[in-house]
Design a protein that fits this description.
By secondary structure, this protein is mostly loops. The chain is built from no helices and two strands. The chain has a two-stranded parallel sheet with strand order 1-2. It is globular.
């Protein structure tokens, strides 16, 4: 179980990531998340990425490139 309310991912390198399935799944205490620095150019799987993030109030996906994504099933479930 994950109990942080905020995570700093400003130096998180996602340049080679192809699979983000369930990446923040179960982060039920997380209130805000800024992923504007994420490079999603190569990502093909995003299903269940924010599964059960029930406290999430602010989510910045402003630079997300989903051109190659083939599944976003239940991404925000």
């Amino acid at each position: 179980m994950f109990f942080a309310k905020k995570i700093n991912l400003s130096n998180f390198n996602t340049d080679k990531v192809i699979d983000m399935r369930g990446m923040f799944s179960g982060c039920s205490s997380l209130k805000e998340l800024n992923l504007s620095n994420f490079n999603t150019d190569k990502v093909i799987y995003m299903s269940c990425m924010f599964y059960q993030c029930s406290s999430l109030k602010e989510l910045n996906l402003s630079n997300f490139n989903t051109e190659k994504v083939i599944t976003m099933e239940s991404m925000f479930f």
